[in-house]
Each structure stands twice: as C-alpha cells, then as structure tokens.
Amino acid sequence: MKKIINYLLLFLGVAFFTSCLKDTQVISPEGTHNVVEFGNVSNILSGANNPYRLYVAAFPVSPLDTLVVPVNFAGANHASKDITVKIEVDNSVVDSLNVRQYVDDDGNPDSDRFLQPLDPALYTVPASVVIKKGSLGSELLIPIKIDQIDFDASYAIGLTITDASGEIISGNFNKIVVNVTPKNDYDGVYEYKMDGWFATTRTVPDAELETTGAHTVRGNLFYYYSNTIDYQIDPSTNQVTVIAISGGYPITNYPESKWDPTTKSMHVVYDVLGAIWLKISPMLSLDS
C-alpha cells in the first residue's frame, strides 16, 4: 500500500522561514582537536537552548531489538590508536532534560510530558565500545525488549561518556537522552505531494512520519525546508491536531482534520499566523 499525503499551499509568510537551517545539523564547537562524543541517533527533539540532546528511537513491536548509538571521534583526524570509550547509564540526565525541556520560565512543569527512566530489566548497555585505530567512530549496541514497553508513559535511557583512553571528551555532546518506544499506528513512509503559491508541484516518495509518542508523529514541514511539524491523532475520533511547528508559531486547528485508518491517510487543515496556509488532502493509491 502506498500512503499519500497531498500538500496544497494556500498562504505562506516569508518571515516564517527566517530560521530554516537544518534542525538536525550539529556543529561541534570544540575547535580543531578531535573529541569523543555521541552521534545523532535520530532527529534531535530537544530545544536549541537545551544542553542535552533528546532523540526518539521507535521500533516495531518484537521480543528484542537493538538501539544503535553512534560514538564518534569527531574532528579532522582519524584515531591514531584503539580508543576504549566507557559509557554509563545516567538517568540524572533524563531528570535534567525534563527540567530544561518541560518546565517554563515561571517554574511550571508540564509533567505529562516528562520522560521516565526505562526499566533497566528491559535493556543492557555495554560498559564500553572501541573506536578502532584509523577510524572515526564506533557504535554502541543496546539490546531492548520492545514488546515489554507500553505507552503508559514516555520512557528513556540517559547515557554519559565517562572515559575515552585519554582522548578529549566533548563537553557538549557527552550526555544524551534516548526516548525508546514501540512504533505507533501512524509511523511510516508516505508519498508527499505539494503544490501551491510558494513552489512548483513537488512529490517526495519517501517522506517519513516518525513516532514521538503513543498517538503523535513528527515529520518535515515541506521536505525542502528543515522545519518540523508534529501531529497528534485522537484514536477515539481520528481527529488530527497540529500540536507544534518548529519556531513556536501560533496554530489554529480545524475540525475537518482527520486520520483515515482504512486508507492510512490524513487530511489536515490549520492556521499559522492567522491565515489558513497549508492544507493536506488525502489521496490514496494501492499497490497490488
């Protein structure tokens, strides 16, 4: 089955795109020396002012799957020796991220969005990985019992690099949080079609919507800008709500926004900056 979302641009404010650099792009400020750091597990979900990076890793439901965490020797040079990188579970990073991400400037917590440490009985973190001589990185492989994770809360693993065989450890990217979750029903690869005032007709055959919660998914806004957009689907009514757009712009949702569970398609209508400017209409084709 090919799932199709048709994007019709009705209005687009030029000011909306003044901050359209890649949200997932990470530039290390460590200087010219190589540093040991965690790489990107997925798209970065934490805010720009959050010192801790947050990722979501969503898996098909199965008894066991593997979370792959890149561990990089970042810089201009390849490793001149084998580098043993020691890594520990550190769920204090989860607590710190919750405060920075989900507590407002007045100290009011959005407790429903807090991440909870994943039950340690459900995963195993190796004590170390080795970045081989002549290479630029390695991978930390974490087996996880996905079928024992539910959607009662958002569960996460906090990780910290504690030692790197005498090499410099990044002061920015040595701690991360990974929200581990089963994939929801809306996660998948869509065919994305767009036409309208701002651009010529465009089709992207491999546009992904990725799980960010039990009934929420995140995608790219236009697939040639980097702005992200988050959708929430009410499973009892199939109502679709746009809950966030990168940049924090005000959103007004409309009742005709729906998810069709039969065709696996969406029709979404909403306002940004006071004008209906994006309409997603369901168009479905089936592959035999």
Distance between the termini: 8 Å
Question: What portion of the residues fall into strands of 2 or more residues?
Answer: 35-45%
Q: What fraction, in percent, of the residue positions are helical?
A: under 10%
Shape: globular
CATH-level-4 superfamily name of the largest domain: hypothetical protein (bacova_03559)
Biggest sheet details = 10 strands, mixed
Main structural class: mainly beta
Number of strands: 19
Nearest-integer average pLDDT: 80
Helical segment count:
1
CATH architectural type of the largest domain:
Sandwich
List its salient traits:
ten-stranded mixed sheet; 288 residues; disordered C terminus; 4% helix; single chain; 2 domains; Immunoglobulin-like; mainly beta; disordered N terminus
Description:
By secondary structure, this protein is mainly beta. The chain folds into two domains: 3-20 and 184-282, no CATH class; 35-182, hypothetical protein (bacova_03559) (Immunoglobulin-like), CATH 2.60.40. 4% of the residues lie in helices and 44% in strands. The chain has one helix and 19 strands. Strands 1, 11, 12, 13, 14, 15, 16, 17, 18 and 19 form a ten-stranded mixed β-sheet that branches. A hairpin with a 2-residue loop joins strand 12 (202-213) and strand 13. Mean pLDDT is 80; it is low at 1-30 and 275-288.
Summary, kept brief:
The protein has 288 residues and is mostly beta strands.
Q: Can you lay out the helices and strands and say which pair or pack?
A:
Elements: E1 3-9, E2 35-38, E3 53-59, E4 65-74, E5 83-89, H1 92-102, E6 115-117, E7 128-131, E8 137-144, E9 154-163, E10 175-182, E11 188-196, E12 202-213, E13 216-220, E14 228-233, E15 240-245, E16 251-253, E17 258-260, E18 265-272, E19 275-282
Parallel strand pairs: 1-11, 3-10, 6-9
Antiparallel strand pairs: 1-19, 2-4, 4-8, 5-7, 5-9, 9-10, 11-12, 12-13, 13-14, 14-15, 16-18, 17-18, 18-19
